[in-house]
Write a structure and sequence with these properties.
Largest sheet: none
Strand content: under 5%
Number of strands: 0
Mean pLDDT: 96
Radius of gyration: 18 Å
Low-confidence stretches: none
Distance between the termini: 22 Å
């Protein structure tokens, strides 16, 4: 595991990310907080592209927890059957929708604790919603961000919680809100798992990864 990069290096890394893409956005398509919450919950062990293919027609019809409850578990399962673990996910989304209606007036709460109490919503999902919809500098750590954070030295940690805390502690404040999207996109398209595209990497000279590709 590489050492934590110094503040000046981190500032330069995120300044380059900002110069390349000043307003990075997530790739899960949604129109409101509820649709985002559902999409992120469905994305576990699935690709964003696969989730989007299933949710595009679904979200044209369903935009509130009340509408989701009216659709029902079987109706939802039929619409998301192309997504892995679709039956379990359909069950969780319906249970989640019922709680949102009964406890939160049909609104998605802007609280990590409240979000994590919902069926099928873990810390990563909660952080994505807090960051993407509510504008909190929450750091959701998925496999891409975990890999990039450790490989580069941006935020090394032995598990996702350690990486999350390292990001919160070390990413310069001006970049914290957008860090999640920059890192996940970098991991998805450049700093890939099997053969990272180091020659195309805009931070290759600042990265601690020893086995850079040529």
């Amino acid at each position: 595991m590489p050492a934590q990069l110094p503040y000046a290096t981190l500032s330069e890394i995120f300044a380059r990310f900002e110069e390349a893409e000043s307003s990075p956005v997530g790739e899960l398509r949604h129109g409101n907080a509820f649709q985002l919450l559902v999409a992120v919950a469905l994305s576990a062990q699935a690709t964003d592209a696969g989730v989007n293919r299933a949710t595009e027609p679904l979200f044209a019809e369903i935009s509130t927890p009340e509408q989701m409850l009216a659709l029902g578990e079987e109706g939802l399962a039929e619409r998301i059957r192309t997504i892995g673990l679709y039956r379990n996910k359909a069950r969780n989304v319906i249970r989640m929708s019922r709680i949102l209606v009964e406890l939160y007036g049909g609104e998605v709460p802007a609280s990590r604790a409240a979000l994590e109490s919902l069926p099928g919503v873990g810390r990563k999902t909660a952080n994505v919603v807090l960051n993407t919809w509510f504008g909190h500098p929450a750091q959701a750590v998925d496999t891409h961000i975990f890999r990039v954070a450790n490989r580069t030295g941006v935020a090394p940690g032995k598990d996702v919680v350690a990486v999350e805390r390292a990001l919160e502690d070390h990413v310069p404040v001006p970049y914290q809100l957008r860090a999640h999207h920059w890192l996940i996109l970098h991991g998805r398209y450049v700093c890939v798992a099997r053969r990272p595209k180091c020659p195309a990497c805009l931070i290759r000279d600042l990265c601690e990864y020893e086995d850079k590709t040529t």
